[in-house]
Amino acid sequence: MDQRPDNRADIRDFLADRRARITPEQAGLPTSGRRRVPGLRREEVAVLAGVSTEWYTRLEKGHINGVSEDVLDAVARALRLDEDERIYLFDLARAAQPAGRTPRRRKAVDVPPRVRWLLDSITLSAAFVTNGRLDIVATNALARALFSPVFDSPTVDERRLPNFARYYFLDPGSHHFVADWDQAVALTAALLRAEAGRYPHDKALRELIGELSTLSTDFRTQWAVHDVRIHHSGVKTFHHPDAGPLELTYQPLDLPLSPREAHSLTLYTAEPGTPAEDRLKLLASLAATHTPTHTPAPTASPSTQSPRAAHTDHEAQAAADPGPPAD
Question: Of 324, 326, 291, which is closest to residue 144 (Cα–Cα)?
């Protein structure tokens, strides 16, 4: 039985969108007369990639199985894909190859003690581990305090496992917590799309994308853009309920815990000598004395509970016990 995911629509939409973003002038092609479509025509991409128009048309319709890496490289250059987009295109091609056997179900990976010790040793930066679905699976005390609105959000699942995508797209409070919310949600959707290209058989990821597509108009808008992001870093500003405004730099690092699941170790820190550094130190002091480290441990099987049911359960639990959950 063919176990390949049917990703032809993803291939078609991605290539067509990138073709529409390039003008003939940018590609160094002559222009003449009126054009019926934005960007390049299929035959122009074919010329730039050194393939026939019929071949490229077939590729853009999603028939990517069996295409050589050299040809994919030529198409990536013709479409001016950046490194993350190029990796995504290759991931789509890899997923379209015939599977020799049924792909194994991806299981949640426990964060080993050595990583938890590493997190606990970091005291002046907020440090946490996420998987490719953007679940927060381990933190140090400062990260738990910094992202307290995420941990305390009704969007956490029944295991009290926070997820950045659910928080940004489904919790209205995220608009206030993150200063540049539009940029945050665009990056979040792009990270999830890259993960979907790498791991098309991930049931929990498909369920998350389906949940967000059903419940969030903003997610549907961002998902339709087909942006892809794998490597990212930069500056974010938060409006923290206890520390006030915090402008922090962040840097994710690959954390190879399992060959079947991607993890990242991300650190947020403040520029030395700034008011943000003073506020972050204050938050670290409060975290050390009042907030225990929160390190949620994933279970062997991702939850399949519906988001509406999960939210209802949390509302009922909150009504019965208004106090904070015990670690």
Answer: 291
State how far the Cα of 207 lies from the Cα of 186, in Å rounded to an integer: 19
Residues 6+ apart with CB under 8 A from 122: 140, 142, 267
Higher confidence at residue 21 or residue 309? 21
Separation between Cα atoms, residue 19 and residue 81, nearest integer Å: 10
Whole-number pLDDT of residue 123: 92
This prediction has a pTM of 0.83
Which of 15, 58, 61 lies closest to 40 in space, CA to CA?
15
Of residues 194, 135, 196, the one with CA closest to residue 166: 135
The count of C-alpha atoms lying within 13 angstroms of the C-alpha of 94, restricted to the half-sphere facing its C-beta, is 12
Min mean pLDDT across 22-26, 236-240, 279-283 is at: 22-26
Compute the mean pLDDT over every residue in the chain, rounded to the nearest whole number. 85
Report whether 280 contacts 270 (CB < 8 A). yes
Amino acid type, 39: G
Q: Which residue has the tokens 């049924």?
A: 102
* CA atoms of 74 and 80, how far apart (whole Å): 10
Non-local CB neighbours of 117 within 8 Å, separated by 6+ positions: none
Residue pair 238/108 in contact by the 8 Å Cβ criterion: no
Contact (Cβ atoms closer than 8 angstroms) between residue 74 and residue 50? yes
Radius of gyration of the chain (CA): 22
Q: Which two tokens stand for residue 74?
A: 């030529």
Long-range (24+ apart) CB contacts under 8 A made by 305-311 are 305/157, 305/158, 306/211, 307/166, 307/170, 307/211, 307/215, 310/157, 310/158, 311/154, 311/155
The gap between the terminal CA atoms of the chain, to the nearest Å, is 45
Looking at residue 300, what DSSP letter applies?
Answer: S
65 has pLDDT over 90: no
Token pair in block for residue 317: 């639990």
Q: Any bridge partners for residue 234, and if so which? A: 250
